[in-house]
């Protein structure tokens, strides 16, 4: 009552129902008008209608004198449609696109609750609408242009010789007799899209005459929008109660009520769902969700539902897989249906899907190729099976989408046992149909672990990792001491057996020595970096004497300089490979055999004018640490020094760069426009060894 007092009635208006244009009044919805067309003073050249289809086609003139009209495009469109010659069949006789065709489509299937209203002198007159049509531009003139283009091409290609024409006149005719059409085939043909299109095309157009807005005939017809008489005999329908009046104004749609399915299919209305029997509710839910834990099923059915009755019904439409309920295959693929992808009958689809479900009872992971190889079904059908109950994991396969429901298994052991017996029967059928091998039948060893996945928090994982590290530390320390003792004993025996051989030792904890195991086959006489024929200067506490250090540094610097002048960019791994090849080519007793560590090699690279390029490789890269260390010669003294430095700066920001970005950056930094060939030459000269990274 308080709300009604705050919103007082300002005016009462009499409403009248006009019947003069009943079942004759249409509402046209025009598109957003182009700048060259105004609907206030528009010129309709022609109009026609198909009454049964309620389809209208209007032809409207375009104002070609409007400053917003593009005359060149209009001439081009007319030339494409009609060609150079003009005749009666030409679409644009003025050689200019001066008109536009609009075709209608129904905006609403049920317009019984819509009306056109006219307000005049305190009275509101309503006329029910018979249809609402949306007008959209028609581009059939483009099809006409394509057809003429094909005709011109056929005319140019045809008629090469009189002999060909004579041969074309003689054709072989095959006579076939069609079978009598059955009733089912006739119904399918009548309901087909092609038949309906043919029926619509057969209806003839009815040409109309258009009257403008200010025409006297339009003024006369507009008077029919008003009620012709205000007496009681003319408006007895409006002498009703408010509820009856609203019911007449907005009647319920009989067609929509009849067209509503008895059970929801795609979008479920919970209110409508709960009006159905319990068995139908469960079947509809399982058919739409496909995989569901029992607890979720009970929550969807509402409070007060008997769990025993639910268990009895769910076993009729679903099977138990890893403690969760999966809808049966025959529910998804009923009898007399087929695959939308391959046309395979429902019986074959059910067997293939049962095989996938049975595989998930054995393990949480299923490989798609294995399923396709056993079932012999097309990849699309197999993918549908897997998407019903699993999720794809990269480089692993398909994992069952729900975790193992251990609570349900513990609470209902009798149901679990009964479902196990059902699966044993299904397995026996699958063995006969698919001739399954032992590897298909035997569950994987990790089944016990995969069937009961553990949920571990992040903090628990950190604590477990710390405890495992502490536990392994002692074992690793003992193993390291044992290996160290063995190395010392081996060193002693080696010195006794071969007194000329010296093995370099570095302090523990420093960087690891260079790994040359991959290149041992280069020189079978090379033992631990030394030739057995001659010795090398003996290191003192892991370091060489002063005079020998200078000589080794000079040799190492010469190798590094010559290497980087040939290949301007190298990774540490590639540099070590080249250094080992260099060692294999040296004569016995060379100073470089005294032992070169990774640190000495890297320091020498930096001393020779090279720089380390911190390339931002992706975290998931499989490259080794030595492959991630990139060194480049900064100044080589040639014409490409500036280009090379710009390229190195680009790759220090991103490990993968497009060629056009490199070209624009080089042109911007170097102040010269480089074409594609010059950019390729710069990349080849500067990064010939960097391309594989």
TrEMBL record:
Protein name: RPC5 polymerase
Domain of life: Eukaryota
Coiled coil start-end: 459-486
InterPro entries found in the cross-reference section: RNA_pol_III_Rpc5 (IPR006886), RPC5_C (IPR045576)
Biological processes, Gene Ontology terms: tRNA transcription by RNA polymerase III
One of the Pfam families matching this protein, by short name: RPC5
Chain spans, region Disordered: 146-169
UniProt domain DNA-directed RNA polymerase III subunit RPC5 C-terminal: residue ranges: 444-692
Keyword list, A-Z: Coiled coil
Chain intervals with Basic and acidic residues compositional bias: 146-155
